[in-house]
Amino acid sequence: MTSFWITLVPFVALFVLLIPLRRPAYQAAPIAYALTVAIALFGWELTGGVLAASVANALIVFVELLLIVVFALLVLNVMIETGALDTVKTAIGGITSDLRVLAMLLAWGLVGFIEGIAGFGTPAVIAAPVLVYFGLKPLRAVAVCLIGNSTAVPFGAAGTPVVIGFAGLGVEPEVIADATLYAALVQAVASILITASITYVVTFDAGKGSFRAFLPFAVFAALAFSLPYLAVAYLVGPELPAIIGGIVALVLIAYAAKRGFLLPQHGDDLAMASGDDAAAGKPEPSPASGAIWRSFAPFIVMSLALVVSRTAPGVQTALQDVTLGFGTVAGIEIETFTPLYTPYFYLALALATALLVLPIDQGKLESAVTATYGKVRTAAVVLVFVIALTQLLLVSGTNPANLPSMPEVLGEGLADRFGDGFVVISAFVGALGSFMTGSATVSNLLFASLQQDTALALAQPVAIVLALQLIGAAVGNLISLSNIAMAAGAVGLDAREGEVIRLTLVPVVVICLTAGLAFAFW
Questions:
Q1: Domain residues for 141?
Q2: By C-alpha distance, which of 350, 363, 390 is closest to 55?
């Protein structure tokens, strides 16, 4: 019992510092990490070798995540310096200039697609800076991209949270299939809340009229993603729902916007930031088709390469077999690099494409590098401490006191305290895992076995409890400090992580609680 309350201390401290006290994450994260180290050393009796192993793992994961942010920003800053992003904006302006529609395209359809092929916090890192460039405020751009990403997360990176996260449970494949379908069903229904939340954040300053007028289109956008997503989850499995849902949503949302389908007809649109010509009342000239193709080329190359790497079995295996290992420390295997499979490699391909096809000189390239460095400095501080905390939690089960790991103590403590009512809070356990680790897959690896054991002890259907774990692990990414830090760094949003959490916390609570109550009375 004591261990349960002690383990809560770093997370309570993190929450209090970020939310009520409004301290920046670059101050809150080191404090939370220091508390975790103290608890690990004195409560769990961790050795110096295990602590060193956690630091080594943290540095490797930190480098991988930082490279995602750096390469994504370099691509975008090169596109800004060369005018390619202006060309993209003008081309998209031919479909719509309404920021609400753009949010549906980028923070819903695009992030869902990128989550399906990449994961690892990549979607918000790519989409949020583009939305900012198009005129959305940085805080809102980060929030809507995180919110919009949550529906795709259960099937992110070609189904990794299910395929890897539920591996080793020893249950029948039919149970995993049922859990996958139940989670997809809840996420599909909740997608209407998600697109409504995106609309609310985008229209916050524009008044309730702008929000209400756009709701029919927001519902359409939700269905454009969730119906194919649900169908693919039922017919195919966990690998493709987010990819197919994202592609279909992008096509249908763009087509509907071009036709004005379900859009307000009273001129209350929220226009994207205009160029000099538009600001002067002149129509912006249409870019040549060659310029459009060159401007979109980095994204096209990256997307095609990612799709092939995730969906072609022979290619996928070959890329995953290229690894860089670092052995073990204190009996703990250190994280390995898979340099040809991780998302930063494909962002590097996008950067190489941009440098090849876009007209850039040394001065513009230096400006792009300087702008990138300026945005990632603070994010790097937050990331390194959050990841160090996460890795320490993951290795805390290796201790002379033979105590379970800290996350296991938290999960078991919650199960003990809620007893027969555990199903109601089951999704919150999954969300806790993602909040701590920034990964739905790791949350499932941490807590799926606990969820299974608790379901069997309470005579509850295992598939339902695993579905709740998957749902919670997905929406928990909305409040993951590592994901927030990556997206905030990409838009230069320093010291406002707590404000992002205040915007994203409500959907997390509503979806977890509603799903838990619904399945409790199944």
A1: 2-270+288-520
A2: 390
